[in-house]
Amino acid sequence: MLKFAEPAYFYMFLLIPVFIAAFLLMLAWKKNAMIRFGESRLVNLLMPDKSKSRAIVKFILLTVAFSLMIIGLANPQIGSKLEKIERKGIDLVIAEDVSNSMLAQDIKPSRLMRAKQAISKLVDDLSNDRIGIVVFAGNAYTQLPITTDYSAAKLFLSTINTDIVPTQGTAIAEAIELSVSMFDKNDHEKAIIIITDGEDHEGDAVAAAKTAAENGIRIYTIGMGLPDGAPIPEYDKNGNQIGFRKDLSNNTVITKLNETMLQQIAAAGNGTYVRANNSQAGLEAIYSEINKLEKTEFDSKVFSDYEDRFQYFLLPALILLLLEFFIFERRGKRFRNVNLFGDNTLKI
Asked: How far apart are CA 76 and CA 96, in angstroms?
């Protein structure tokens, strides 16, 4: 498999037509200057060392060398071989609550931002495990199917916000069911981590967790929020905070962590519950426990390595540049009778 590490250098090929046009204009200018200088036969007699083709040869050498340099700078790389690599890991789905209550700032900078930071750090620490992401509020949606592409995981994670799910609520049961459906039918250890404040949850999340556990899937929960709760900020279209959410009686809404319910879900799912705080988000502790589960092997075909091939282009380019340097547009006296370039100048 061939790829280029720096393909942006190919834009430099656009300069070659400019160089050709400039060279042709220079040749035309020289020709007109010679015509104005005198009759061509007389000029050739006066300038026996003049070469008509050497300038063209030098330009061709420079153009080819420039082209080779561009390809070399783009750094062509070849996948050395397609290798079947055996990996050991677990399948993990993270279900992230994106309801408006996750904007509360009792966990700094906010419940949602702290959760995203913790997930991002977890992805950085993964090596062989496969990961998927589910987002949920009033409904649950697959944000990222289970994959070992950690770059894609971080990319999709960066797009998560409270506007990604239009319906408000906390559909934990639906998030568990969707997460379960994402797993392949294999013998890998499987786990679901639910990150939520658990407020205003919908459906029977405990029953969903119990069903998942019966299918060999462990459920872990992380409570985002503090016992005293916090108001829910409201923002304008420019992202500036304009106040806090009010109820119908114009009282500030305080969102509190539903810790009891999250503990029940974790117990039913044969997992554990951790409450986040301002010093730690709890995800590391959960993953440390998950990491103790037995890891099974799965195959992944990848190009094991890419080898640089820029030297195969830069070296010929250097040789052509040296060759061009030692070719002079005028012939020396010693080589006046040597006609390597097909010049037909008259001799006296």
From this structure: 41
Burial class (CB in 10 A: 0-12, 13-18, 19+), 284: middle
Q: What angle do CA 100, 269, 123 make, to 5 degrees?
A: 60
DSSP string over 204-216: -HHHHHHHHHHTT
Q: State pLDDT tens for residues 111-153.
A: 999 999 989 988 888 878 889 999 999 899 999 999 988 999 9
**What domains lie within the chain, and their CATH numbers?**
2-79+307-335 (no CATH), 86-300 (3.40.50.410)
Q: Under 8 Å CB-to-CB from 19, ≥6 apart: which residues?
A: 63, 66
| CA distances in angstroms from 221 to 10, 82, 194, 212, listed in the order given | 50, 39, 5, 14
Question: Is residue 87 within 8 Å of 128, Cβ to Cβ?
Answer: yes
The beta-strand segments (E) located in 208-265 are 217-223, 230-231, 233-235, 241-244, 254-255
Q: How far apart are CA 324 and CA 259, in angstroms?
A: 78
What are the distances in angstroms from CA 205 to CA 46, 98, 166, 283?
Answer: 100, 17, 21, 20
pTM (two decimals): 0.61
Residue type, 196: T
State phi, psi for 297 to the nearest 5 degrees: -85, 140
Report residue 253: phi and psi, to 5°.
Answer: -80, 130
Contact status, residue 146 vs residue 174, Cβ threshold 8 Å: no
